[in-house]
Amino acid sequence: MIAITMGDAAGVGPEIIMKALAHRELYERCQPLVVGDANRLRQAGQIVTSSLSIQPVTGPGEALFEPGTVDCIDLGLIPDDLPWGKLSPIAGDAAFRYIEQAVALALANEVDAICTAPLNKEALHAGGHPFPGHTEILAALTHTPEVSMMLMTPKLRVIHVTTHIGLVDAIARIEPGLVKRTILRGYEALVRSGLASPRIGVCGINPHAGEHGLFGHGEEEQKIEPAVRALQERGIRVEGPLPADTLFFRAQRGDFDLVVAMYHDQGHGPVKVLGIEAGVNVTVGLPFVRTSVDHGTAFDIAGTGQADDRSMLEALNQAVLLAPQLR
Questions:
Q1: Radius of gyration for the chain, computed over Cα atoms and rounded to the nearest angstrom
Q2: 277 pLDDT tier (thresholds 50, 70, 90)
Q3: Using alpha carbons only, what angle is made at residue 42 by residues 84 and 301, rounded to the nearest 5 degrees?
Q4: CA 92 remoteness from chain centre
Q5: How many CB atoms lie within 10 A of CB 133?
Q6: pLDDT digits (tens, 9 = 90+) for 156-170
Q7: In DSSP terms, which residues pair with 151 in a beta bridge?
Q8: Cα(231)–Cα(79) distance, rounded to whole angstroms?
Q9: Sign of the CA dihedral 257, 283, 117, 126?
């Protein structure tokens, strides 16, 4: 059973959910349960010319889980006249409430995983929730001290040592313990998903991974190499620090199963070039599986029916594949 949070109601979340749940074969693999607003889903259904009906429920026990019907835990937070594609504190607060409800269900073992539609960080802040994004909200709600963001496309998997902080702050935060823990979280996630001995490549921070001190101030030697050596001594197949520009090419070619990026854009850029339409975001380290689309609220096309549901479908598929491994 997968809880799907509706995301920012002014964005494309409701539309991609309605499109994804129209795929009848999805119901052969999982029981999707939307946490959001039933009326907003109806409006999205009209926009994408969907024939699906919406069934409001108060919990999983009332859901039908039948093709043709969207079961929705209806929080009733969105006014009928909320505009599409415009930043709204109401939608920002509601997006947080959907996550809060889904987390409660997951922690109570009433659902097996959470799959999230996109939220808007500015709307989230305007709604009174000063978090950088989903990852930090989920960590706070579950009292998890440290989690990692892993992005997946058909050709590339990337886990991040740091994410939503400035580049100068990211470099300051990186240290051998954090690098080691991040690599281990990615390694364990891949082992649970069926890869017995993942091959892991670790990015450097500076151009050419510092070129033995030519670039930077010894960050690779001080912050990354000790972690890699310690894990190699444990028999984990990890290499690095390696120049990021060639490492991503080698990984998508098949030389590595996972790339460890040091900061947000180092990892996000290649992933989005290679497959944003089918990209998936996985939060690693939570007490449950959480997957997400790897795109934003797309306010520029929200309410037009143009939104692509491939990333949502892949996020649901990955949730199904990962969740049973935790049983």
A1: 20
A2: low
A3: 30
A4: 18
A5: 17
A6: 899 999 988 999 999
A7: 158, 281
A8: 52
A9: negative
Residue type, 186: G
Tell me which residue has tokens 């070039």: 273
How many C-beta atoms surround the C-beta of residue 46 within 10 A?
Answer: 11
Residue entry with tokens 């823990």:
181
DSSP 324: G
Both structure tokens of 107: 């922690």
Give the DSSP per-residue string, 80-93.
TTPPTTS--HHHHH
List the structure tokens of 154: 């058909």
Q: In 3D, which of 236, 290, 275, 276 has the Cα closest to residue 258?
A: 236
CA pair distance 59, 105, nearest whole angstrom: 9
pLDDT tens for each residue of 101-145: 999 999 999 999 999 999 999 999 999 999 988 988 999 999 999
**Helix and strand tally (H, E) in the chain?**
12, 12
- Burial class from Cβ neighbours inside 10 Å (0-12, 13-18, 19+) for residue 128 reads exposed
The length of the chain in residues reads 327
Residue type, 280: V
CA dihedral 168, 213, 236, 267 (to 10 degrees): 40
Give, to the nearest 10 degrees, the angle between helix 13-20 and helix 38-47. Answer: 70
Q: Please give the pLDDT value at position 275.
A: 67
